[in-house]
Amino acid sequence: VLAAAKKAGVHLKMCLCTHKHLDHSGGNEELAQRHPEIQVVGSGYERTPGVQKMVRDGDVFSLGSLRIRVLHAPCHTGGHVLYFVTSSKHPEGKAPILFT
Length: 100
What we know:
Blueprint lengths: L1 H7 L5 E3 L5 H4 L2 H7 L4 E5 L9 E3 L4 E4 L2 E7 L8 E7 L9 E3 L1
Parallel strand pairs: 1-2, 2-3
Antiparallel strand pairs: 4-5, 5-6, 6-7
């Protein structure tokens, strides 16, 4: 992820982690140690490696013009969360992104 971001000229600010399985969270701790400017966000319903900010259903936070709403979806794991992302540049419901 870091190499791809560097190649694209993108500066990462936040990592949204959906659940605790290592294929989704395995690099969180190293990311947090090497890049303290990148905030690692994850479920408050389960212990996920490297998470610095725990979130729960209904929580809303921002990243620049992005509005991120947390949805608890206990299916893949009991603590699985989804992130519904909208932009202040688009009205609610227009051009949303759902991270599952």
